Amino acid sequence: MPSFPRGSKGLFRLGLRRPRSAAADVDEELRFHLDMRAEQLAAALGLAPEAARDEALRRFGDLEAARGRLHHGARRREGRMLRRERFETVWQDVAYAVRQLRRSPGFAAAAVLTLGVAIAANSTMFGIVDRLLLRPAAYLRDPDHTHRVYLVRYDPDERREIPANNISYKRYRELAESASGLAEHAAFFDASAVVGTGDETRELQVGLVSASFWRMFDARPALGRFFGDAEDRTPAGDAVAVLGYDYWRSRYAGRPDAIGQRLRIDGTLYTVIGVAPKGFNGMSMSPLVAYVPITAAGHDRFRDRYFTTHQVSWVEMIARRKPGTRPETVEAELTDRFRASILATPRHLPLEQTRPHAILASAIFDRGPKPGQEAKVALWLAGVAGVVLLIACANVANLLLARSRRRVREIAVRVALGIRRGRLVRQLLTESVLVGLLGGGVGLALAYWGGGVLRTLLLPDVDWSSGGALDLRMLVATAGAALLAGVLAGLTPALQAGSEDVSAALKAGGREGSAQRSHTRDALLVLQIALSVVLLVGAGAFARSLRNVRGVDLGFDAERVVHLAAELTREQAPGEQRRQLAERMLERARELPQVERASLTVSVPFWATWREDLYVPGVDSVSTLGEFTTNAVSPDYFATMGTRILRGRGITDADRAGGARVAVVDEAMARVLWPGADAVGKCMRVGADTMPCTTVVGVSQDVRRGSFDEPATEYYLPATQADAPGYGVLVRTRGLARPHVEAVRRELQRLAPGTVYVSARTLQDLVDPEVRPWRLGATMFSAFGAVAFLLAAVGLYGVIAFNVAQRAHEVGVRIALGAGTRDILGLVIGDGVRVAAVGIALGAVAALAVGRFVAPLLFRVSPRDPLMLAAVAVVLLLTAVAASGIPGWRASRVDPSTALRAD
Predict the structure, then answer these.
(1) Domain ranges of the chain
(2) Is the pTM of the predicted complex or chain greater than 0.70?
């Protein structure tokens, strides 16, 4: 074993003795000191060498304990030294990378901005997907064991299972009381309600929840208390309310004296007993103004029917499993009770036909069996953002490859001087990661300023304020995307630079090296073009879907019609008084200068429908042929809506109470019930098969009421002959409706008794949310596709320009031998078109492969449309010609003597 020089203080230099271990140095140092002490004792006491060594050990004490202490201290110092050395190495790599980027500000700006735009897209989309699909409701207790309950039935007509998340309150109680595997359960419903009095009256979202709802959350009231089981009981719960935190701050300025005050909700005065904590929205993603007992609100809305019948399906059920209980066990219990409940219901279809069962889904709604269309589009857009990031990484990798060719002699010299290739690769990767992190900073700034626009466009009803514009999860995701981008962009250039042939590079003097690097740049360019094809095809498919949706004939003029209704409770007005108020509103609306026509209605497209039992002579079971919705209207209805009468007549003033019962059916209903025959003059029985005949007097144009795909099968009754649940007023304005909505609403508000609120909404406002997924898909696919297309075009230009510059000698020789401008242009453009053609072919294959997955999101468009693929191919080929033509033209103007001398 080697030893320290005599007299040295080696114990204090252990961390510098590498590669020897700290333990070996400690042992050597101890041996040295013992030997010196033994020599001193032998000389002083005249002892033999062995006796002197034994005496030295005795006087030293516990050698093993001292050795252990010294080993531990040495290892700690050695670890600190190694960490310091690693930090210094990393710091040197970072400083070197900074110097290199400062020497090439143009390259740095282009690379950072390219990655920044892509990272911003990914950060924003992560925030949206995180809110929709990853993040459970705030304060939710044990999300892994908490579920939304869905009841599923098989529809023989549509040949698919239809899950329902809205069930009756009676069925909720039946399910909840029968499942022994549930630790807790609750019912809830987010309802639009009229809140406030006087000028402060607004339509706002209110949470109708059971008392057990609060036990599903680890939330404490910010003020006051939550309501309990004693206040949430059938038939009518207590009129108490817990305010939402944001509403408490805005309406009551956060004052403690809000407790005890009374808040009018849908005509009922609720006493405020508490305030929910900040950020608490229940199971909703939008802020709610208040939470009230579901039994109190249910009684106000439906009287005793809400808990005595299965016909009113309106509540949602959430449940938490007991620890150790499997979801399948609870689902089996709920399914048994669900089937028993159906068997107790009169006029049900056979269970073998409908196959009813219950499922426990995720507590996050959009991860369940009925995700919203916006969530599906958002998930695709997140994938598209990832594709854009790949394109950006390929683009920056090409820039780094081109830059490494200019630094080939510098790298070769450093290798020749002794730098290890691993250290060289690490330095180059550090440079690319630094670019990625700088791009992440730019991406965060862009996501902060521009992400709000995208979030509002995609989900305008979601509360984005609770987590802030940039929360910790988004910061972590952005940092991860930046690191990944830096590694992906720099890995190939770093590895290729690290494998450089030193002698060949030094002899070449920095000229173009192997052809392999050119092939690598071409491969990255092919990847960019292929991915751009996929995005551009997706953009075209969504754009055509949006065009097709907008081209659908809805059967009514959505932009010119306003629906108005007085929000009355049963205590405020019985059914007959409601109708009389609606008729007074109708007469007043007809007198307004902004109004062209007006009519009464019950059903409203894309918002509210009404159904009655229907019987048709000669048809065994009308219900098996589809769902037939009912509407009760006044004579001007079809002219107000802009719906045409195709045959016969519409509803007229002659159709009065006590007269002959008449109806107008739409064309879709006529085709279903009387195929091949004229529906005019046919008989229907509405309500029961014992009712008198209702004669069809006209056939109207089809109207879309809940879907753009198929028209509703609907029939219209005169308002004077129908026992309708409630009426609203439809107003056709002179010109577009939106500028006149508030003025018309204020005029009709004057007719409403007491604190009753008159709501108003244009039909376009009801249609727009249905169009939003296609508009979003078209907008964002087009934006991402445009970014990808721009990056591909710039990348193509950069690669071709670099290749031309590296082939300057060859071009000079060709010109010297008589090649003309056309020949040089053909050579350069041919190279660019060949690369583009390969990328287009691969992209077309990829687009065809993923087309079947995106097809459900499109509207009457095939993602495999050959014309769309051909259009994208032509655009990219023309771009390749333009991107190659510029450097080709410059190359054709080169003086051959200059090019040859430069070589």
Answers:
(1) 10-96, 143-363, 558-763
(2) yes
